[in-house]
Design brief:
The protein is mainly beta and 68 residues long. It has 1 helix and 4 strands; from the N terminus they run βββαβ. The longest helix has 7 residues.
């Protein structure tokens, strides 16, 4: 599948935290770092993502804000 987003990182699923409707998937990035993604449990099931899977992290955002 081809994506228009140019920010693509490779990583491994380190943890999946499930709630009632949503989940948080933590990714260990190659070579170093972590990132998390939050999406619905339906999407998790449809994608078939499991702990230990190798995944592509595709970042497409208009704004990324940090504040202290």
């Amino acid at each position: 599948m081809k994506f228009g987003a140019r920010n693509q990182l490779t990583g491994k699923v380190a943890a999946i935290k499930k709630g009632m409707l949503m989940c948080q998937v933590k990714i260990e990035l190659d070579p170093k770092g972590t990132m998390s993604s939050v999406f619905t449990l339906d999407s998790l099931k449809e994608l078939g993502i499991k702990k230990g899977d190798k995944v592509q992290v595709i970042v497409k955002a208009v704004n990324v804000l940090l504040a202290k």
